[in-house]
Amino acid sequence: MTTVVFLAAVLGISIVLGLPVVAHPTLRHVSVAARLSLAWTMGSLILTMVLTFLSAIGARWTGWWMLLACVTAIALALRMLRMAGPAATTSVSWQWPGFSVGGFGFALVALSGLSSLVLGVGTSADLSYFWGVKAAHFALEGGIDFELLRQPFMIHLHPNYPPLWPVLLGWGALAAQSMPWLTISSLTWICLTAAAAIIFSTIATSIGSRAAGIVTLLWYGILTTMMLRSFSGGNADGPLLLFLSVALVVIVTERANESPRLRWLAALALAGAVFTKSEGMIATALIVVGTTVRDVMWRRPAVLRRAGALILPALVTAGFWLVVRIAHDLPLSDPIRESAFHVSFDHIDVIIRVCIRILISGAVLVGWLIPLVTLLIVGRDRLVATVPGVVTALGILTFAAGYYLHAMGDPLQLIVWTFPRLIVPAMSAWILSLGVAVFAGADTPEADAPSEGGPI
Amino acid sequence: MVARGTRWRGFVDAVWWLGALISVVILLVHCYRFDAIDLTRRSPFDNTGSGHAEQWIFLEEASRQVPEGASFTVVAPDRDTEMSLFMMAVGLVPESSPVPSSYYGQSTGRGDLAEFVLRFGESGSLPPSEIPVASISGGRVTQRRTRDP
């Protein structure tokens, strides 16, 4: 029963709060599964921002606040549906990539991932060290426990970390009156599967259902394996991957000669990434830089204005969390992370050796090679389209290497613990951007469209 | 360019399918190490092979011995395990007050102030100031005698 109430609070309330987002006319063409997933993704951001705001002003989390938020969300969603009208929808014929090998592959990955995460094969130690710990205390307190986070012997809780994940889990535990520790890693599977549903539906409009099925299956298989092998079950890497993948898939499916009508969704997703993990800010900056470079190369108008609009919601959420930390006397940086002023170039050898070993191991190597090789064969005229994903992927790897240079003492353990997780969003960006470029034009009339960089 | 793309399209499809197949096989091999999977889970870490499961089960059993609001500390044979246990205990015994004996390898000097001591991996004789409360999986729980004013 605890698990059911927990999931209802974490998933159900978020979905209701996300309804106004998916009622937007530009999302009418996506599948029901993708809309449901998007409602949860964006709703979890709205829910945690509301709960963080309540804590910031000293109000306890109660069902009444949530009832008010849900009624408001439903009213907004109904209003948006009425305003748009039935004629505003774009009709897309949905075809599952055939039940055949593709459907069987999806089912295998989904069942393997679910059973593994339910059985805790990939549970993250950080769940029991700080993500879940914070959540357990937030549930007891009925809000963010600022007093706990200020204590000197609680710096291992990383009090400066963005609050989305512990607040979401804490809300669920408050509703369930208990912390369902064994259930939490299953949420990582939900993040992966929701992302896969959104990716498939979004790229199908760009490269067709068949190609979308192939790209999504590779993404789902590789990313599920990486999340399990990096022991990310139950930690904040699941929602981070979800938010970043939504933003990336929207951006990489934009076309040079079309207005980016879903850019607002990417901007909201980046706000979610920033509100989830500190790495979210790095990835957000890289995505915005990559998108801006690509838009300049495509000679799109108002590039800087669009870049500003893309990053604005992320800056607002980052600013919001900064104000909350200042108001409640929480640290602004992480007291137990490596010093920014300590750099040791002696680490270069071990960084290169260990990182390369991880980058070429099993599924990770498959994830890098297949999109790259096939792009070089059939998509050399579409390289510019891959810039947002490539800049993000290579930028994250560079950031990781720079980060390890700051390690005090031997960085080996730090690299082995963190690198397999850090490269998860990089892999997502790589597969999505290169995959869309490889298959662009395979199933759709865009094959004959003018090559990129031409007149708009 | 389109012609080249068309010519290679079947090959590209096959390569992506192959990649997907390999990833599924790697996933299945990783997931279904049947001899290693414990279906009767008592902790989130039973199937991770990380050693956290023992610590978790110890703390879960210990938490039943520590009254709500009481202070407790964790003692382990080495400082890394002690830190790991302390971090977990903050979440697993949230209604009590955790006091670290050591923090990131450094003695805090405050562990002696805690009312209860969760002793992990220890079975030897107790200090005279402590009385045994319960023996549990992986260790035992003791209580400090009330000091004379």
Write the layout of secondary structure elements.
The complex is a heterodimer of chains A (456) and B (149).
Chain A lengths: L1 H16 L1 H4 L9 H25 L6 H22 L14 H20 L6 H17 L4 H5 L13 H13 L9 H22 L1 H21 L7 H16 L10 H12 L3 H20 L5 H25 L20 H12 L2 H17 L8 H19 L6 H28 L17
Helix pairs in contact in A: 1-3, 1-8, 3-8, 3-9, 5-9, 5-10, 6-8, 9-10, 9-11, 10-16, 10-18, 11-12, 11-13, 11-18, 12-13, 12-14, 13-14, 13-17, 15-18, 16-18, 17-18
Chain B lengths: L1 H30 L20 H12 L7 E5 L3 H14 L4 E2 L3 E2 L2 E2 L8 E5 L9 E7 L2 E6 L5
Parallel strand pairs in B: 1-2, 1-5
Antiparallel strand pairs in B: 3-4, 5-7, 6-7
Helix pairs in contact in B: 2-3
Report on the architecture of this protein.
The complex is a heterodimer of chains A (456) and B (149). Chain A has 456 residues and is an all-alpha fold. Chain A is built from 18 helices and no strands. In chain A, helix 9 runs parallel beside helix 11, helix 11 runs parallel beside helix 18 and helix 12 runs antiparallel to helix 13. The N and C termini of chain A lie far apart (57 Å). With 149 residues, chain B is α/β, with parallel strands linked by helices. Chain B is built from 3 helices and 7 strands, in the order H-H-E-H-E-E-E-E-E-E. In chain B, strand 3 and strand 4 form a beta hairpin. In chain B, helix 2 packs across helix 3. The longest helix of chain B is centred in the first third of the chain and has 30 residues. The relative contact order of chain B is 0.13. The mean pLDDT of chain B is 85.
